[in-house]
Amino acid sequence: MPSGPGPDQPPLLCDGSVAAQVRPTGVAVVAGAAKVAGGRADAWVDIDEREHRRRALLGLGAVTSLELLDRVLGLPRGGWVRWNDLTPEETRSLRAAPTGVVVGSALGVCRTLAPPAAVPLVLIRSASWRRGLRTASAFEPFAQRVLILDGSCRSLREVTWEADCLGVGVWIENGAGTEEVVRPAPWRQRYVTAAGWRFRERAYGVWLSAARLGG
């Protein structure tokens, strides 16, 4: 999974956007792609081209049902599970799944769905750094996070201390460009959850809408 600036990289000072300079090739910055109960933000979205093409052929978009994703997580991808080994609730949910999520036979079911995208970095913009850090905290289970502030911030020392404690990076935009003053803590996925998968599906859905609008 691509990641943002690592601990061995120097602070960034560049003309224009830091994101444009450091994001991995093929990763798009998508406005509003990061969505959780505690807020919404821009994000780097790295599309899995194989899964995207598979879904496009089947007419399948983003799958955002938490219940369905939880059911699907219980199935090995590419492996068959007998209907008799599932509960009645699981069977009903999987039989009703959209085309492209699973394939079934008289004897069992096989998962074909995979996460359509990775979201390696969330970019939070806020007029209030305290509110921005609260929003960034909501994304902690899902991705690396950066708070973007303008150069007029007068509490920079306090901001950087709190952000560093929370593992949130801080970028400052000013007339000279964008400077990284706090590196974001590395983020690693410890285990797969339905909520984490839905986070990626939501980002994929926003990316799809942006791609359609862009022609």
Describe the model.
The chain has 2 domains: about 15-45 and about 115-180, Rossmann fold; about 50-115 and about 190-215, no CATH class. It contains 7 helices and 10 strands. The chain has helices at about 20, 50-60, 65-75, 90-95, 130-140, 155-165, 195-215; strands at about 15, 30-35, 40-45, 80, 100-105, 110, 115-125, 145-150, 170-175, 175-180. A 7-stranded mixed β-sheet has the order 1-10-9-8-7-3-2. Helix 5 runs parallel beside helix 6 (about 155-165). It is elongated. Residues about 1-20 have low confidence and may be disordered.
Derived structural class: alpha+beta
Strand content: 25-35%
The level-1 CATH class of the largest domain = Alpha Beta
Output the CATH topology of the largest domain: Rossmann fold
Count of the domains: 2
Q: How many helical elements?
A: 7
Q: How much is the average pLDDT?
A: 86
* Rg measurement, Å: 20 Å
What topology emerges from the helices and strands here?
Layout lengths: L12 E2 L3 H5 L5 E9 L2 E9 L1 H10 L7 H8 L6 E3 L5 H8 L6 E3 L3 E4 L5 E9 L3 H10 L5 E7 L5 H11 L2 E6 L2 E6 L11 H20 L2
Parallel strand pairs: 7-8, 8-9
Antiparallel strand pairs: 1-10, 2-3, 3-7, 4-6, 5-6, 9-10
